[in-house]
Amino acid sequence: ASGAAETLLRFKSSLTNAIALSNWNSSVPLCSGDRQFWTGLICRKGQLYGLRLENMSLGGAVDVDALAALPTLRTLSLMNNGLQGPMPDVKQIGALRALYLSNNNFSGSISGDAFEGMGNLKKLYLSRNEFSGEIPASLVELKGVVELGLEENLFEGRIPDFGERDWKYLNFSGNRLEGPIPYGLKKNTNFTSFLGDNGLCGEPLAPCKSSTKKWSILIGVLSGAAALILCLVLLRCFLRTSKSSVAVHDDTKTETKTKLFLSPKILFKRPEKTHQYSSTDSDDNSNLSGPTGSALCFVRTDRSRFDFQELLAASAEVLGSGSFGKSYKAMLSNGLSAVVVKRFGQMNAAGKEEFYSHMRLLGRLSHPNLLPLIAFYYGKDDKLLVSDFVPNGSLASHLHGKRGEGNARLNWGKRLKIIKGVARGLSYLHKELPNLSLPHGHLKSSNVLLDQNFTPILSDYALFPLLQKSHAHHHMAAFKSPEFSPAHHDRTSKSSDVWSLGILILETLTGKFPTNYLRQGKGAADDLAAWVNAVVREEWTAEVFDGDLLGGSGTAAEEDYCDWDYNEDMLKLLKIGMCCCEWEIGKRWGLKQAVEKIEELNYDDDEEEENYSYYESDYNESFYSNSSNFKGRRRTRTTHEDESSFLS
Ligand SMILES: Nc1ncnc2c1ncn2[C@@H]1O[C@H](COP(=O)(O)OP(=O)(O)OP(=O)(O)O)[C@@H](O)[C@H]1O
After folding, report:
1. Mutate to test the pocket of ligand 1, among 80, 321, 446, 473 (most ligand atoms within 8 A of CB)
2. pTM
3. Fewest Cβ atoms nearer than 10 Å: which of 254, 273, 371, 396?
4. How many angstroms separate the CA atoms of 208 and 262, rounded?
């Protein structure tokens, strides 16, 4: 084996879950001309030029010593994996031109000299890890770097002065940086590059307050606070003497307010209100007639408006980091409405005109099972989409999240209600957006939000035309369908949404997280649909259902299956799910058929469901006794007089 092959195998051995690299084999050459024989290699003129090991679910730490022994290596991408540990000592691979480590679990501070001597580096992406501490000083010395992605880490302190450059990409957003934005960074950047960094100021954000101004504000605040305290003391004395219970009530109020004020999650706070991106909203929709300025554009007439400054000034918390960027919940200053701002960093597939017209299209959609788009912001690198906050979590959090207070188990009634709503919302999208190849495209359980009544509300729909293709291919649910193969022609179609619906149904019935969400194209042995198929074929059908759904409390292994119960409609829904998950598109059900079949299923009123009245009223013994396909067993309940006859 060549030295490079041995070195690569050594590097591989430091990784965990390197299944995607199973064809790395020392008896096979690495490259021939520009062709590579090992997965993830980039070859140039018969030599190893780069490693592109993205989206492979790789874990473990990076063996930089091994990589340093590859003298021709110029580009290294380990993006979108689960790699851990501190920042790898990349200066050992001094000739690198591009380094992509985004979307991993790297953490800790990066030493100041981490990039010393890497004079060839042009692109550095460390986004969406947990790097902390200051931005390393050695980075500033690398004058060739024109693409720098540091967003969504925990960097703190000031942004160093990189001098003037023609930045092709620059992003510091979603960190804990503070202080003035250096002058040189104003060129080719806009404020989205700094969004979410509490404490940054200066162009393109609001101006920094001068220190004299700060002092006068401080003095003003202090004297105001002193006056307030005096008033409070007097008020308290007065209340004490009049009615003690009122004083107790006041204390509680003060405590709540303090907690809110001290919350570390205040992200959008900005010092003052004047920068060039203040809203240009008018009362009509004229700002949507074409791409005008950099403003928050409202797409609906039925919503009260707020301006960008209000959004920036809102208290906000991070809801989570998805495949496209972070989502923030922001409480508007009216104190009543909460909105969600989702930042998309890979949304440059459409030009500005096309983007605006797509937003207009989305703004016209209206259905009880769709999350309405309220407004958007169009920036060169980042786009922001604003929608309502939906208060009851997502289907994913209810199925797979922690059990406990506020996260009651989902009974059959709720699950069926959710699936029905999802089917209706999806069917509406297919009807209203006939020209889109993927009317939803990203249907999965974290994009099914639930309101207080467990009405499902679909989010992140119809975005495919806007997203960079390669990013969409890696992340969107439709591209996890069997008809998509990264290496071949993309055969996804509207039917891929049906496949996603099928997976969602199976996930909802089994309570299992579909590994399908993590992988592109054809699944393997752990494919949820394949698992369900196998279990049903083996007639262990009761085991397929989530224990919670059947009234059991533990996992399948812990349960006594004689205590389990399922009903005819659950089986019908299981079948619908399986028919939607057919690998062959020709055999797969169409959406219309799936929706019709789902609509035929019944559920009782939620309240009754909670009391298990379902089991009393809808129990269909003849189905169970006649069914030879399924081992139906009834949950042992003292109220069932006919228990023994069923089991015998
Ligand atoms: N409008 C909303 N109201 C309430 N929660 C929301 C809203 N939008 C998103 N969330 C929740 O915020 C979290 C992050 O959402 P986000 O859409 O960014 O990522 P995701 O759904 O996990 O992945 P993806 O980006 O692939 O859709 C998720 O738990 C999601 O359920």
Report:
1. 446
2. 0.57
3. 254
4. 23
